[in-house]
Predict the 3D structure of the following.
Amino acid sequence: MIPLKVIRQEPDRIRAALADKGESPALVESILEQDRAVRALLGEVEGLKAQRNTVSQEIGRQKRAGSDAAENIAAMAALADRVKALDKRLQEQQAALELDLLQVPNAPHPSTPAGSTAADNRAVSSWGEVTQPGPEAKDQHDLLVDLALVDFAAGARITGQGFPLYTGRGAKLERALLNFMLDLQTAEHGYLEVLPPLLASRASTLTTGQLPKLEEDMYRVGQDDLFLIPTAEVPLTNLHRGQVLEEAALPLKYVAASACFRREAGSYGKDTRGLLRVHQFNKVELVKFVHPDHSYDELESLREDAETVLRRLGLPYRVVELCRGDLSFAAAKCYDLELHAPVTGRWLEVSSCSNFEAFQTRRGHIRFRRSDTGKLDYPHTLNGSGVATPRLLAALLENGQQPDGSVRLPAALQSYFGAEVIEPL
RNA sequence: GGAGAGGUGGCUGAGCGGCUGAAAGCGCCCGCCUGCUAAGCGGGUAUAGGGUUUAUAGCUCUAUCGAGGGUUCGAAUCCCUCCCUCUCCGCCA
């Protein structure tokens, strides 16, 4: 959330940020206007309350002294009604303002490239050798099906399209990937492993920024008004909602493997083949709460932590920095990691590493006390996938397939999987 | 699902209609004291918003004792609803 004070002081900057993210800058006008209305009411009602407080104290003194307070009591009874009516109007006005404030996206960091679509994203780096597929090479879908790693039809039978069922070696490979990534992040990068709830409350999804705008993208359990998490970012970030953290404890680093649920509303018909876009998938997520003075250094190190996964697996990838228009609602800066899938012929996004600055911690009232000023301040939150498995698996298979139809697994994975090669049936 | 207990500042924990933004302790900050450390002594220390202001300094007003309603001139304190935590019972992987 962008503080009201900032919108008042730098309306042009916020208008620009809205435009950058493809939203109407008119929201700023609406907010400023509502802010004026709130402040006018506030002045009025607070004056009346001040009067009420002083006279009420006077009544207390009169009663204790045994003198007659009837006149004051009658006057305050009349005033109480006015206060109540004004308070109601004030509350409504403040609620309206709050609603608008929650719609304001985070402002892009000045270093982020200008642009509106993915075509404007900036190439940062690449790693590994992009391979040319042989004439007989299969794409991820056919490999998954022919090697009997995933039974798409069974998943569809149970739930519907986009809910893959991993079978046999596929299930074990999925487990191997998750274990490998968790072990790497906990043992080598110092993250604390967490196994979080998969349902989150309205308050939690509001903190991370899925609500209020992206409600349609989540699965909702209406009976209890809970949401299936679209990413473990939601539970991990909300782990400290409403708390005051110890400055010395920063950075706090958490990692979780979890199922993620996304309705992918509006993207029907896109990428339906194989594992490129599914409604339920597994992901290892990294979340850090960091001191605001070093959050951009922490973003680089988070990205390194995620990249390490791909390097250990020997898979060619590239890093792109998202342009302003491609940034998510809550992000100030974001790097995507994309694996190369030689047969599909595309770069597959497997991780987004973002700095949200104080956007989420403000919404979630997550704070820490600064030793330099003695004041409360908001830590910055960062998160990144490390990484999501469906496209990882897709790239792994396409890159590892051999002319005989088998798939050679990266050395890092072999002990987890228990074999070096997935043989054809 | 049933019964009971409870939710107060960074933490522990008093208060149970006005003198309480809130005792006391811990923690933290400043100072004093003592070869150093430990201990001791004195003082300070909530958050948000409005107004004033060059000011994120001061001053001042308002709000906040889980959330929301109500009673009252006045609510942390009384009443109602909800949420959460704990204990016991039931059910269950």
